[in-house]
Amino acid sequence: MSALLQPDLHPARSVFAHDLLAGLRQRQKSLSPKYFYDERGSALFDLICDLDEYYPTRTETALLRRHAGDIAAKVGPHADIVEFGAGSLAKIRLLLPALQAPRRFLPLDISADYLQRQAALLRADFPGLIVQPLAGDFSGPMTLPPLAEGAARRVGFFPGSSLGNFNPAEALAFLRQCATLLAGGGLLIGIDLVKAPERLHRAYNDAAGVTAAFNKNLLLRANHELEADFDLDAFDHYAYYHPGLQRIEMHLLSRKAQRVHVCGEPVDFAQGESIHTENSYKFTVPGFQALALQAGLLPAAVWCDEDALFSLHWLVA
Ligand code: AVI
Fold first, then answer.
1. How many other C-beta atoms are found inside a 10 Å radius of the C-beta of residue 140?
2. How many Cβ atoms from other residues are within 10 Å of residue 156's Cβ?
3. What is the best residue among 42, 138, 252, 280 to mutate for testing ligand 1's pocket, by most ligand atoms within 8 Å of CB?
4. If you take atom 7 of ligand 1, which residue's CA is the nearest one?
5. Enzyme group, top EC level (predicted)?
6. What is the pLDDT of residue 9?
7. What confidence score (pLDDT) does residue 12 get?
8. How far is residue 169's CA from residue 291's CA, in Å, rounded to a whole number?
9. Is 182 helix (H, G, I), strand (E, B) or coil?
10. Class of CATH domain 55-195+283-316
11. What is the distance between the alpha carbons of residues 188 and 302, in angstroms, rounded to a whole number?
12. Nearest alpha carbon, ligand 1 atom 6
């Protein structure tokens, strides 16, 4: 689906129904993580970002604060900035005071109503800034509006290591699209790093159960939007690190043999069978830089924290 300009567009329910039923018919049942982000899912994700165990957000935030001046110098004056998967807009707020007269800010997110509210709050706090929210999906081909009048270049911002939620082929395709869409400018991207599995395990299995609620929100969403009858207590949140694939896998595990209905269609689960709901790939700095180069983006700067938990990259397009 393209990134569409209509700010009030919701991804069609029939698309969710189609993708869910198709995913549940596979041998390994699965669903794209993009369906996490309805209103409640976006709010739960914001709670995850504040958890002690979830180190990526505060580590990336510290990097953005510490290096805002250097980043602004790379971005240059009069940039037209597009943020992919913009969510709460908390991270662009850290850069805006350092950026040199940005021409416009285009936050793009799949969660349309949430995005509108966050955009209104940002406008109120940065009255001179043109904020033009785009409701849409950045996991496929994207169409962006023409460069803003007077803009020197287009710059992409993709924080949070959301690239890690794509499979390797999708990640390469996304970066290739960035190389084309941002030609003459660049991409600032946050990338989570490979580290001790225990640390990763804690980050995706928090003690308060927020990540579990976020994962199960997919089932709740299907119940509300598709007249499904998932019993949330009959599924467990299950997340683990796969060192060979360098990724966290999240699943919803059926606690028993059961039949569920989605849009009136029966779906059977064996005890212990799962729906694979998310991958979160972790990278090494050289590994990510090689991927960027393969996509036609030139690694020009990287900033990391002292514990090598997280990295921020400036890639020239
Ligand atoms: C949005 N994305 C980068 C998060 C991640 O860490 O992969 C989503 C998430 N899933 C569970 N916790 C957070």
1. 14
2. 26
3. 280
4. 280
5. transferase
6. 41
7. 57
8. 10
9. coil
10. alpha beta
11. 10
12. 280
Domain ranges of the chain: 19-52+198-281, 55-195+283-316
What is the identity of the amino acid at 195? K
Q: Apex CA 245: angle with CA 22 and CA 64, to 5°?
A: 95
- Please, what's the largest Cα pairwise distance for the chain? 61
Please answer whether residues 228 and 262 qualify as being in contact, where contact means their C-beta atoms are separated by less than 8 angstroms. yes
Give the model's pLDDT for residue 151: 96
For residue 140, what pLDDT is reported? Answer: 87
8 A C-beta contact, residue 260 and residue 267: yes
| Rounded average pLDDT per 10-residue block, the chain, 317 residues | 40 83 98 93 95 98 98 98 93 97 95 91 95 91 94 97 96 98 98 98 98 98 96 98 98 98 96 98 98 98 98 98
Span from the CA of 162 to the centroid of ligand 1 (angstroms)? 7
146 Cα: distance to centroid of ligand 1 (angstroms): 31
Distance 37 CA to ligand 1 centre (A): 11
Neighbours of 271 (CB within 10 A): 10
CA of 181 to the centre of ligand 1 (A): 25
Query: 147 C-alpha to center of ligand 1: Å?
Result: 31
- pLDDT for residue 5: 39
The pLDDT of residue 4 is 42
What residues flank ligand 1, with Cβ below 6 Å? Answer: 48, 160-162, 164-165, 204, 211, 278, 280
Beta-bridge partners for 179: none
pTM above 0.95, yes or no: no
Give the rounded distance of the alpha carbon of 63 from its chain centre: 18
Structure tokens at 240: 């683990």
